[in-house]
Design brief:
alpha+beta; 4 helices; three-stranded antiparallel sheet; 180 residues; oxidoreductase; Pnp Oxidase, Chain A; 41% strand; globular
Length: 180
């Protein structure tokens, strides 16, 4: 008899817990109040750029330099991410709310309006972003109805722009004037 895979074991553990849980609406309400940085994850797939807005990017480890993001298994970008070796994460600047909205919109060519460049290694990055990371995909872990995609940072670029934040379905700007 073989032991269950991680996703099967995880799902069994979750289903076996006999305790109340939040509804999806309650869970979303909590996280809508939690401000998050806004990033665009972009890669090249079948010789075309693919990208999407992500507010789930997290730092995992400084040594080695690891980060992660989550992506719904139903996302139109998932097939490209599933096959990707490398990708780029551009952390958006406070004037790029239109870029975030564009990369969050389904059914359009998100790259058509421009405002992006290609790294020498082929990954697209957003021009004018606060910073970007080029990263190698090290793991794709199914969790619930999404995947947690773990990355090892390979290269980076940083500017002194202010970051764009997202909270309760609205964009916010921060800067030195908001420091406590």
């Amino acid at each position: 008899m073989t032991s269950p895979s991680f996703p099967q074991a995880f799902e069994r553990l979750i289903s076996e817990l006999d305790e109340p849980q939040l509804t999806p609406e309650q869970f979303k309400a909590v996280f809508r109040q939690h401000p998050a940085g806004v990033a665009v994850v972009a890669l090249t797939h079948e010789d075309r750029p693919v990208g999407f807005t992500a507010t789930s990017v997290i730092s995992v480890s400084a040594e080695p330099p690891l980060l992660a993001f989550s992506l719904a298994s139903t996302s139109s970008s998932w097939p490209a991410v599933r096959e990707a070796t490398t990708l780029a994460v551009s952390f958006l600047a406070d004037h790029q709310d239109d870029v975030s909205a564009r990369f969050a919109t389904s059914g359009i060519d998100r790259f058509a309006p421009g405002g992006w460049s290609t790294l020498p290694t082929g990954e697209p990055v957003i021009d004018g972003a606060v910073s970007w990371l080029r990263a190698r995909v090290v793991q794709r872990t199914p969790v619930g109805d999404s995947y947690l995609v773990s990355l090892r940072a390979l290269d980076a670029g940083v500017t002194d722009a202010s970051a764009l934040l997202y909270r309760d379905r609205e964009y916010h700007r921060i800067g030195r004037h908001t420091a406590i």
